[in-house]
Amino acid sequence: MTTFYQIGEVCQRSGLTQRALHYYDEIGLLVPSERLTGGQRLYTVTDLERIERIKNLKRLLGLSLSEIKRMLDADEARARYLTTAQTTSDPGRRHKAVESALRVTEDELQSVREKVQQLSQLQRQLERQVREIRRLGAAAPAGGSPAPEGIGGRS
């Protein structure tokens, strides 16, 4: 028997607000497993696990909700393709399913690589700014003069 959680319980367990859960439902990021006739949303353990994956992707990679949705949809598609590949006896169908799983995974990997590259650029920019600010601090007279132009701005 499946255990269902009402939205208040999900908020308490996940740290998300009802408004966030409603928005996730609206954009298709997290559609509740069940909905009562009055519209009340009911969530399962699988839904709670998806929430944790959403939060981790947002926190770890700084992904937008649309990027997260794309990644989670890709995960589900890959799982379907691999299940087909593992359960079919038709070699042609198996090959097609494996190729589809590979394509989805390569696309997902490329997205992660792009995000890592963007984060690396930001890291290098911040490291340059830290060096500039440290040099400025080491060269500044005790009385404190204004910063030269260009320091603290964009590099």
Characterize the structure shown:
- The chain has 155 residues and is mainly alpha-helical.
- It is built from five helices and three strands.
- The protein has a three-stranded antiparallel sheet.
- A hairpin with a 5-residue loop joins strand 2 and strand 3.
- Helix 3 crosses helix 4 and helix 4 runs antiparallel to helix 5 (91-139).
- The termini are far apart.
- The model has no long low-confidence stretch (mean pLDDT 89).
Query: Total number of β-strand segments?
Result: 3
N to C succession of SSEs? EHHEEHHH
Estimate the global geometry from the Cα principal axes: flat
Largest sheet: 3 strands, antiparallel
Distance between the termini: 58 Å
Major sheet: arrangement of strands: 1-3-2
Number of domains: 2
- Residues in helices, as a percent range: 55-70%
Structure annotation, total helices:
5
Strand fraction: under 5%
List segments where confidence is low: pLDDT < 50 over at least 5 consecutive residues.
none
Using only C-alpha atoms, the radius of gyration works out to 24 Å
What number is the mean pLDDT?
89
Structural class: mainly alpha
